[in-house]
Hints:
217 residues, alpha/beta, 48% helix
Amino acid sequence: MIRVLLVDDQELVRAGLRGILREGFGFQIVGECADGDEALAAVVDARPDIVLMDVRMRRVGGVAATRHLHDIRPDLPVLALTTFDDDEALAGMLRAGAAGFVLKGVPAEELHRAVRTVAAGDAWLDPSVTSRVLAVYRSAPNPRGANPELDQLTERERHVLSLIGQGRTNTEIAEQLYIGEGTVKTHVNHVFTKLGLRDRAAAVVFAYDNDLVRPGH
């Protein structure tokens, strides 16, 4: 059962999410917040596996709330949720530490997949807006810090990075490369360490930046 904390300032939206993320599908809503400033205390009390965070809220928005959560719980994944094709805000969520984003209005099955994927430690970037959001993300001065050269990676590590950039999970990478999932995790850890990447979302951005995967792949 995946424990989900909902953060959205619209009760109607939260009610809809409760209906989609039901226990029958393997989800448990362990807390709800109407604003980003409530999320910090709720994380301590509810002990969620993932936070589903609205981008636009009246007082403390998703970017600020995600940044604060990442400071105190860097291991807790945040999935951004928005009704807007707001590229700047979604890019801000990535910079703040979100593991990805999904647009409101997607089919229930896609939201299920997004929540499961991010809760498992992978990234989820909605393909309909990813290329635009990454363009905004890259426009910020030095968004990732240092920009190491790809030649630090072995050929296999480069291949693993390209598959991460395509949104593949560790299990899918293992199946495609005919290697064990433990071996994939080792390669992923090496990639993160060599390139100074914070998480899989940052790895997706790096893969796009360095033409290991093209927008719309």
